[in-house]
Amino acid sequence: MQRKSPQQHEKKFCSFCDYTGIIRNPYYEQTGEPAMTPCPKCVVPHCRCGGEAPYYYFDGGIKECFCRPIRMKIDLIEHIYRRSGIDKKYRWRFINEYKSRNKLGEAAKAAAYDIINKFPDVDKGLFLWGNPGTGKTFLSTIILTELITRNAVEGRYIKISRGFFNRLRSTFVESSETYGTSSAIEKEFAEVDVLVVDDFGTQRDSPWEQETLYNLVDARYEAEKFTIFTSNNNPFKSLTDIAGGRILSRIKEMCRIMEISGPDYRDTL
Ligand SMILES: [Zn+2]
Ligand SMILES: [Zn+2]
Hints:
Elements: E1 22-24, H1 28-31, E2 36-38, E3 56-58, E4 62-64, H2 68-82, H3 103-118, E5 125-129, H4 136-151, E6 155-159, H5 162-170, H6 182-191, E7 194-198, H7 207-222, E8 226-231, H8 235-238, H9 246-254, E9 255-259
Helix pairs in contact: 2-4, 3-4, 6-7, 7-9
The structure holds zinc ion (2 copies).
Residues 13-14, 16-17, 21, 39, 41-42 line the site of one zinc ion.
């Protein structure tokens, strides 16, 4: 992973906003308010622009408002988040909302906290596997949301499905609108700072699909990019024979492999 010194608490912000200057509002959909706002305790009191873009004010000359870096950061995060690909029902959900049901879930949540607090100074991504309905997608999109909103890094969610491969396959069809863009799509997923790959590793994948997945995994491995995988299958069983075991050996190096199994979580989401 990229090495940067751990983020210092910025003294100009306060504990109410966890020293970020930004308050996140998980009820934004119900209330119609913005998902993120400048902290009302340490940013808004110093604001002299009234929150009007581009966040300057006039005082004998045009001056940059104290709130400007924070409002610009919020605009950037919202822009990144809109194109992250996270499904609507998982959007703007945070780590405090993940309720672990057993020891496996607790350990996965602890690993998630660790990643969220230390990013980008983390050694490994995560490979979460277990039976369906145990919150793997929920936890992985929570981590993605936390990393985007805290660090303003680019992040994407992809689900490995028929649709995903059909989208890629259509880029080879001359009459398709996306013709010729396969390398651009692959490059985007290979290079994005944080990637969640949901539903990885099913044995029905064709050789072409396996090769596509291997190339994605390999590109992220080479670029030392942070990746979270989820799977319904134990990778030590399901991935052993795929692509000659190459995918499994890459994933073992890239990720902390953790099992989350247990009762079905989906009804309570
Ligand atoms: Zn604050
Ligand atoms: Zn302002």
